[in-house]
Amino acid sequence: MQVTPKNIDLTTLPDKAPEIDLRELLEAGCHFGHQKANWNPAMDKFIYTEKDGIHIFDLAKTAEQLVKAYNFFYKLGKNNKTVVMLGTKRQAREVVEKVAKEAGMFYIVSRWLGGFLTNWKQVKKSLHKMESMEAKMEGGDYDAYTKYEQAQFSKEISRFGRFFNGLRGLKAKPDAVFIVDPMRENVAAAEARTMKVSVIAVIDSNGNPQDVDLAIPANDDAVKSIELIVELMGEAYLAGKEGK
Concatenated DSSP letters for the chain? Predict the structure, then answer.
C-alpha cells in the first residue's frame, strides 16, 4: 500500500536507488517492531505478522520506502538542499554524527532545541553568536579579559556547543529533517510539519506514519538497523552532490 507524502512529490524523484537486499535488512534486525500491545494501528500497512507478541515488519515494504527515501536524498544532494539529521538516542548518536559529517549534512545528537524551526530567527542569532565568540576566542580577542571572564566566555561557548555543534554554517531553515524515532523526537516532527519542512523518519511499529512525510518502517532501537538506514541516506545525499 502506498503512503502519500505531504511535502514530497514522488513523481519528481530520480531513479537512483540501488536494489535493497532484504537479507541485509533481515540481518540488521530491521524487521523487529515493538510489542503488539504498544503498536499504532496506522502502521498496520507495514506489518507482515506477529510472533511471540512482537510485530514483524514486511521487509519488502521497508525496502520500497527505502528506495523512495534514497531517491529523495539523492535529489536533495543534487540540488544542494540542506538536511538536518536528528538522532539523540544512544544507539543513533555516533552514526548520525559520522554520516552527516561525511556527507555534508547538519546534525543534532544532544537534544532538539524547542523552537529550532518555529523560532528560527532567534536560533539563527544564537548560532551567529556562538560562531562569533569562537572566532574571538581563537583570535585572542578575549586575552585582555580576566581569567574569570575568559572562563565565563568558555562556559557560554560550551553551552552553545551542546546544542549547535552540528549546525555550524546553517544559514536558513533546513529543507528537510531526517529523524530516528519520531515518537521520541515528537517536538521536532511537529515543528517541521508546522513549518512545512520535509520529514523523513525511521519509524517503529508504535509510531504514526501520518506524522512524517516519508516513513521508513523499521526497528529504530537496534544499532545495526539504524546504522544501515542512516548510512544509506548519507550515501544517497553524497551521490547526489557528486552527480553519480
Answer: -----SS--GGG--S-PPPP-HHHHHHTTTTEEEEGGG--GGGGGGEEEEETTEEEE-HHHHHHHHHHHHHHHHHHHHTT--EEEE--SHHHHHHHHHHHHHHT-EEE-S---TTTTTTHHHHHHHHHHHHHHHHHHHHTTTTTS-HHHHHHHHHHHHHHHHHHGGGTT--S--SEEEEE-TTTTHHHHHHHHHTT-EEEEEE-TTS-GGGSSEEEES-SS-HHHHHHHHHHHHHHHHHHHHT-
How does pLDDT run across 19-47, given as a tens digit for each residue?
999 999 999 999 999 888 889 999 999 99
**pLDDT, tens digit (0-9, with 9 covering 90-100), for 49-100:** 989 899 999 999 999 999 999 999 999 999 999 999 999 999 999 999 999 9
Question: What percentage of the chain exceeds 70 in pLDDT?
Answer: 98
Beta bridge partners of 201: 179, 215
* pLDDT value at 147 more than 60: yes
